[in-house]
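step 4 of 6: structure.
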Amino acid sequence: MSIHDLEQAFQDKIDKEIKIEPKDWMPEAYRKTNLRQISQHAHSEIVGMLPEGNWISRAPSLKRKAILIAKVQDEAGHGLYLYSAAETLGTSREQMVDDLLSGKAKYSSIFNYPTLTWADMGAVGWLVDGAAILNQVMLCRTSYGPYARANVRICKEESFHQRQGFETLLVLSKGTKEQRDMCQEAINRWWWPSLMMFGPKDSESTNSDQSMKWKIKRKTNDELRQNFIDMIAEQIKLLGMTLPDPDLKWNEERKHYDFGEINWEEFWNVVKGNGPCNKQRLAARNKAHDEGAWVRAAALAYAEKRKNKLNKKAA
Amino acid sequence: MNTAIKKYYYGDIPDGAAENNSEKKSSTAESTWPLWEVFIRSKQGLDHKHAGSLHAADAEMAMQNARDVYTRRQEGISLWVVESKYIHASNPDDAEMFYEPASDKVYRHPTFYDLPDELKHM
């Protein structure tokens, strides 16, 4: 079969909603796009542990501490599901980790913002995980089988993350004036960066058309962002707080909320590495990796030693 | 050719990548932990089902990691781990030829037999 025929057969499968599995023929660009997207998703889970890890030792109660540890552990797990899915596309775990540590690979820019108060734990769970869930629910139906399956697993666990975040804010919203202020300020800080999580506008997004055609993505950045805004604009009423956007208003004709202009300059600036915490996040990952080197080496040496012992016994 | 001899088919991991796992040195000059496939029995009476994969230095660590990565919410009561390189898989390119013999044997299915409605318990 010629490349053209193979590509046609591939697209037919996609159109018929047949999942693509690792050893099926796929266009090189499909492999690369998936690899980039899945590894970035994995890196985001791993780096995403840092802003919340910051508050584990400072959680206001033992209950909150246990919840936060469980959430951060889930994120490590999500990273591992996704790295495994990416490995089926022919890259190694070490290569991906190296690319993250060297700064070559990207991860979601949202994690380059600092978590300044305890209320940020609530805002991150509600807004950041909320935005991530919309994306991940869509990705449960992505065309690449291992990525779809990883997202199904992730979505099952992610709902707790968002609910605990909202509940954290709900408690603060019913508290003292200081607690209510803290709640509002955290929402103000995280609102706009959360909207940026969906990526550039459709009119500016370069990969979107092909990704939609290959059903890697099933909704556009703008569609997902609008879904998110409609959802949060209603939910915030229960908190008695406000979203920091004077232009946010229900549009009866569109049956959607209208919203103000996103600061895209800030978005690109953080993507390029100049966000508040880019350097700190990478430094933390590098430190953890370097300090864990002896553990990895020791485990391997121990496994080797035991294998040799078993071999000797058998001989 | 030499490379042809080394070619064997693992589960979901492309040949080159999986073979490299036990031998390749990464750019940080570290040896790397091999890849393992994880199978979970979700409850008594059901089969073990493939859940995913992970890296571990040995079987004991693979088991512990599988517990932490794949069963944080009581997803299983029994785990199998097997090093990915020991899994041999059929080749999707051969699927047509490989599974074709079953496609023209409709008489293997009970619906092939046209029997009177009065016939009960069959």
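step 5 of 6: annotate
 - Strands of chain B lie at 35-41, 48-55, 78-83.
 - Helices of chain B lie at 2-5, 15-23, 59-70, 95-99.
step 6 of 6: archive
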